[in-house]
Amino acid sequence: MYEETLTISNETGLHARPAALLVKEAGKFECSIKLVKEGKEVDAKSLLGVMSLSVRQGEEITLRAEGDDAEQAVKTLRQLIESGLGE
Amino acid sequence: MTADHIKGVAAAPGLAIGQAVRWRKDRPKVEKRQVDDADQEVLRLEKIVDRAKEQLTRLRETTRERMGDDEAGIFDAHLSFLDDPAYIGEIKNRIRDKKENAEAISEEVTEEMASMLASLPDEYMQARADDIRDVGNRILLLLSGIEPFDPSLLQSGSIVIADDLAPSDTAQFPPGVAAMVTSRGSKTAHAAIMARTLGIPAVLGIGDNLDQIQEDDTLIVDGDEGNVTINPDADSQQKARAEMERQQELRRAALEKAGSDAVTADGKRIQVFANIGRPADLETALQNGAEGIGLFRTEFLYLENDHWPTEEEQADAYAKVLKAFEGKPVVIRTLDIGGDKDLPYADLPTEENPFLGHRAIRFCLSNPEIFKTQLRALLRAGVHGDLWIMFPMVENVSEIREAKSLLEEARSELEKEGHAVAQQPKVGIMIEVPAAAVTADVLAKEVDFMSIGTNDLTQYTLAADRGNERVAPLYDAAHPAVLRLVRQTCDAARQEGIITGMCGELAGDPKMTEVLVGLGLDELSMSAGTIPEVKENVRRIETAPARTLADEALTKSDPVEIRSLSGK
Question: Are A70 and A31 spatial neighbours (Cβ–Cβ below 8 Å)?
Answer without folding.
Answer: yes
